[in-house]
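lol forgot to send this yesterday, sorry. struct tokens for the thing we talked abt
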């Protein structure tokens, strides 16, 4: 089963399939601690970041790992952006 998340990201390098594969691979490899660390909310910047909304289709096991990352403490967008920045 698949679902999608809509995130606001700055790093839009590569095509949708490449981004999706990189995200899936990274999230499966991260420990729970690393996942929480990378999902820390981004600080506001001045000037503002160039964040764009992007829908990403993900398998159910990845969506389950993302479930605990709830605002205000955590941000799925920050997690995805940090993965794509690597």
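and heres what i got for the seq, position by position
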């Amino acid at each position: 089963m698949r679902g999608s998340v809509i995130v606001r990201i700055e790093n839009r390098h590569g095509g949708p399939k490449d981004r999706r594969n990189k995200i899936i691979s990274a999230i499966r490899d991260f420990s729970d601690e690393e996942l929480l660390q990378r999902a820390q909310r981004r600080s506001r910047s001045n000037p503002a970041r160039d964040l764009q909304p992007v829908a990403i289709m993900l398998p159910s096991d990845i969506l389950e790992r993302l479930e605990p990352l709830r605002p205000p403490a955590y941000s799925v967008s920050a997690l995805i952006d940090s993965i794509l920045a690597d």
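The radius of gyration is 12 Å. anyway ping me if u want another try
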